[in-house]
Each structure stands twice: as structure tokens, then as C-alpha cells.
Design goal:
This protein has a five-stranded mixed sheet with strand order 2-3-1-4-5, with helices on both faces. The protein has two domains: about 5-40 and about 190-415, no CATH class; about 50-170, D-Maltodextrin-Binding Protein, domain 2, CATH 3.40.190.10. By secondary structure, the chain is mainly α. Helix 2 packs parallel to helix 9 (about 235-270), helix 10 (about 280-305) runs antiparallel to helix 14 (about 350-360) and helix 15 (about 370-400) packs across helix 16 (about 410-415). Helices cover about 65% and strands about 5% of the residues. The protein has helices spanning about 5-20, 20-45, 65-70, 95-105, 140-160, 165-170, 185-225, 225-230, 235-270, 280-305, 310-325, 325-335, 340-345, 350-360, 370-400, 410-415; strands at about 55-60, 80, 80-85, 110-115, 130. The protein has 16 helices and five strands.
């Protein structure tokens, strides 16, 4: 195997790829998207309730006591972005509730709170908030807080206790969070702490799977145009495959270098650069190399085995489905990096780079056992060698095979050939 020939193929693959419009768009759009996401998340995390549109909340109070107390707790019947109003106490509750629900459906009311008659009892029926969507709206929690405060106040009065004195005795302890530098955690910094592992995962996924798909396209195009037959007259299949993988790997490394530089610059801009440590960058690069070699080898073999992109897409579906598992489970893995599920997923070779980077960059990443930090890349390296060998066997035979796409048995036969 000639190193010069491999270098020539890699250089050609790199130059031809970086000259494409898709590469330039990826180089520019991803940094813009990173900055936009940071600005948007910061804006949303510090948004005040007063910035939201004021909406009307109607109350149907079957107990006859709680609604009045809720109104007394807020000035002028308003609580943040809610304007509270009480339904006619003389009206039939069932009829009144039906009329107000129609207004909620029409959009003139935000919601209707139906307070049961036995709300003060120990085994009271539940109060029901009838809303059109918005179940994750913070106004729901504000309504629940007002209701609980009102009921608690009335219970104190009925027990002969001073509600104001009891409220003073039950006042919560002041509590705040500070990072390791002693700075107080603001909502935007809390958001950054939560999203940092996902940012590493997303950049790794785009650098490995997103970029390596270009290798699949390149192999299929050269095979269908018969250019590969000319190349194989001067190169061995292994030299061609190795050069292509290294060339596309260089493209991915260029993109990842720019993306991570922008992301780190944004972290400095927001004052959260302490969340990205030097060892995190080293781990990211290591898992990028290993993950790219694994996935790119698989895609190179698929490209050699197929004749058209349509055939390749059908074979890629299972690969794509497996690789998006960490994207779906990222929040759980970040919150529980040492759970049985996270640990087992770390040693499933196609997912090892993505799951391990999530575990190690998470706020509890220091708790990942050292033996797992050592064993995971070693295990992945073994699989990379095995997959590259299998892919080279398929690549060698598939490049010159045309016609119907091979089945699993035929692919196994190619490996043994």
C-alpha cells in the first residue's frame, strides 16, 4: 500500500469538497445558528412575565369563599400576565362553567378555574383548570400557587390562627446557587450548563455522520460514472478507500474546528467558558476521530455496494435510526451519566462516541468511573479496526459490481471472498 497514493486521493477529495457550495454553507450557517441559539435561549431564559400578553382567567367558585380570597391576594385582580375575574356567584355553576368554556375555546379567555365546593376539606375534590393547550405555561403554576395560598389562608382562619403570623413562621429559607468561581447562577448560565453537553453531542454528530455522508455520495457517483474503474487501474481498493476516508475526515475536521472555535468564543462572550475544559476538547477530538473512522467506513462500504442513492438511502435508514438514539436520550444521559442505561449504551460501538461525550461533559461527568473512561475508547478502537477491515472487503468487491443491490448473505460472501 503506497502512502503517496493515499495522500494524493485524500488531497483531491479534500480540495474538491471544500470548493463546493454545500461546504461553504455549512462553514457559515452553523456558526450563525450557534450564535442565534445562544441569543434566543438567553432571551427566553430571562424573559419576565410582564413581557407576556395579559390574558383573562375566570373562576367558578362552588365553595363561595376561595375566589374572593384569591382576588384579595393580588392588586386590582392581576397576577403578572393574568387578569383574574370571578363568575356570577348567583348563576348555576354547571351552566356558568359551560358558558365560560365556550369563551376559552373562542380565545377570549385564557382559562377557567373550577373550584369544588369541598375544596377546604381534607379529602377534597380536585380543582380543575380548563385551558386550551398551554399545559407547560408558567401561568398554570401561578394559578396553582394563588389557589393554594388562598385555601391555606382560609384554613388558618377557620382554625383560629393568625394567617399573617403563620405565613411569617413558614417563610422559606433564602437560597441561591453559585458556580465553582463563586459567581451567582443566572437563568442564562443555568441554561448554558444544561445545553453544553448537547452542544458537544450536536457538533460531534454533525462532524461524524453529517460530513461522512459526503463519502457515500462520492463513492456512488464515481461508481455510476465508471470513474472508479479508471482509478482502480492505478490504485488498489484499499488505497482508494483509505484516501477517501482521510480526505473527508480532513473536511470534517476543518468544519469542526471552525464550529468549536465559534462555540467557544460564544461561551467566552456569555461568561460560561469554565463549562468547556481543555480535557473536554481533547476527548471531543479523540471521539471524533474514532467515530468518524467507524461511521465513514460503514458508509464507504454501503456506497460501494449500491448503484444509486435511492438504494443507499434504504440501507442507511437502520444506521440513521441507531445513531439518533443519543439525540433522543441526551437529557436523561446528561442527568444520569452513571445509570445502568447510560453505561450500557456507552459500550454499544456505534453510539460510544456520542454517549461518552455526553457523560463526560455533563455536570456530573467527574463521577464517571476511570475504568469506563479508559475501557470505552479501547473497546471502540477494537471495533474501528474490525469495521474498517470488513468495510475494505466489501469495498473491494462492490466497486466493480453492478446490477441489483446485494442482500445480507451476499455481503457476507464478499467479506469471506
Amino acid at each position: 500500500m503506497s502512502g503517496y497514493k493515499i495522500f494524493t486521493v485524500a488531497r483531491r477529495e479534500y480540495i474538491e469538497t471544500v470548493k463546493t457550495k454545500a461546504f461553504l454553507l455549512g462553514l457559515l450557517l452553523m456558526p450563525l445558528m450557534i450564535v442565534a441559539v445562544i441569543m434566543l435561549s438567553t432571551r427566553l431564559s430571562v424573559q419576565q412575565p410582564s413581557e407576556q400578553k395579559t390574558q383573562r382567567l375566570a373562576i367558578v367558585d362552588r365553595s363561595g369563599r376561595v375566589a374572593e380570597r384569591m382576588l384579595a391576594q393580588v392588586p386590582a385582580g392581576e397576577s403578572g400576565s393574568l387578569q383574574i375575574e370571578v363568575g356570577d356567584p348567583a348563576a348555576d355553576p354547571g351552566t356558568l362553567l359551560g358558558e365560560l368554556q365556550k369563551k376559552v375555546h373562542a380565545g377570549s379567555l385564557y382559562a377557567v378555574l373550577d373550584i369544588p365546593a369541598d375544596v377546604l376539606a381534607e379529602d377534597a375534590s380536585p380543582a380543575v383548570l380548563h385551558a386550551r393547550g398551554g399545559f407547560f405555561d408558567e401561568r398554570t403554576y401561578r394559578v396553582r400557587g394563588l389557589l393554594n395560598d388562598a385555601v391555606t389562608h382560609i384554613r388558618y382562619e377557620d382554625a383560629g390562627l393568625d394567617p399573617d403570623e403563620m405565613r411569617k413562621l413558614a417563610r422559606p429559607v433564602r437560597f441561591e446557587e453559585r458556580d465553582m468561581r463563586g459567581e451567582r447562577n443566572r437563568p442564562d448560565k443555568q441554561m448554558a450548563t444544561m445545553m453544553t453537553p448537547f452542544a458537544f453531542l450536536f457538533l460531534l454528530f454533525m462532524g461524524v455522520f453529517g460530513v461522512s455522508q459526503g463519502l457515500l455520495t462520492s463513492v456512488i457517483e464515481e461508481k455510476s460514472s465508471r470513474i472508479v474503474e479508471v482509478l482502480l487501474s492505478a490504485l488498489s481498493p484499499l488505497e482508494l478507500m483509505t484516501g477517501k476516508i482521510l480526505g473527508i475526515a480532513g473536511v470534517g475536521f476543518t468544519l469542526v474546528l471552525v464550529w468549536t472555535s465559534v462555540a467557544y468564543g460564544a461561551a467566552i462572550w456569555k461568561g460560561v467558558e469554565h463549562l468547556v475544559q481543555i480535557q473536554h476538547i481533547g476527548l471531543f477530538l479523540m471521539y471524533y476521530v474514532l467515530g468518524f473512522l467507524l461511521i465513514a467506513s460503514v458508509l464507504a462500504a454501503l456506497g460501494a455496494a449500491c448503484n444509486t442513492l435511492k438504494e443507499a438511502q434504504s440501507l442507511m435508514s437502520p444506521v440513521t435510526f441507531v445513531l439518533i438514539v443519543p439525540m433522543i436520550c441526551w437529557f436523561y444521559i446528561t442527568r444520569s451519566p452513571n445509570s445502568t442505561f447510560s453505561t450500557l449504551l456507552s459500550f454499544f460501538p456505534p453510539l460510544t462516541p456520542f454517549v461518552m461525550i455526553l457523560r463526560l461533559v455533563s455536570p456530573e461527568g467527574d463521577g464517571v468511573p476511570l475504568w469506563q473512561q479508559i475501557a470505552a475508547p479501547c473497546w471502540l478502537t477494537i471495533w474501528v479496526v474490525l469495521v474498517v477491515w470488513v468495510a475494505s472487503r466489501v469495498f473491494r468487491v462492490g466497486l466493480l459490481m453492478y446490477g441489483k443491490a446485494p442482500g445480507l448473505r451476499e455481503l457476507v460472501r464478499w467479506v469471506r471472498y
